[in-house]
Predict the structure.
Amino acid sequence: MAKWVRMSPRKARLVTQHIRGRSVPEARTVLAFTQRAAAREIEKVLRSAVANAEANHGLIGDKLVVAAAYVDEGPVMKRWRARARGRVARIKRPTCHITIKLVPGPEGALAPPPPPPAPEPEEAEAVVEEAPDATEEEAPAGEVEPDEQPEPATEAEAEAEPAAQAEPEEKPKPRRRTRKKEEEADS
């Protein structure tokens, strides 16, 4: 369904008459060779209906038939055009709602069911031990890796350790001398 399409419903109905009752491939061909502007809009609705049937209902798009194709009137937008001697002329901008309904064709449009999943091969129950990689080198016993910290032995060491790990205080930066102070210092 396409709503509020900016064209006259009377002109769009002329095109929908051509595809009613036809198969989807045949309707697409008719719309492709129809000269009217409504054919493009109706072709978009047909394409959307086929995609919905395939995605939501598991049907095959080329085996569907257009069961119903109709155009309803939408709201009419009223505009005005200035005319001679201060008069106005009314302009009507009609809109329409296009609807297309599809059904499975006589040969059936149901998609074949998907094949059952293949059985998985049985895994061997043998446990494979992982050998240490030759590329990884273990640290000697005396060295400690950066991410591993030794635990302190006593409480006093535990309290002192965070203070030792704290960042050193930054020294205050020397004050910049202004031009006046430099002139006073020079004289």
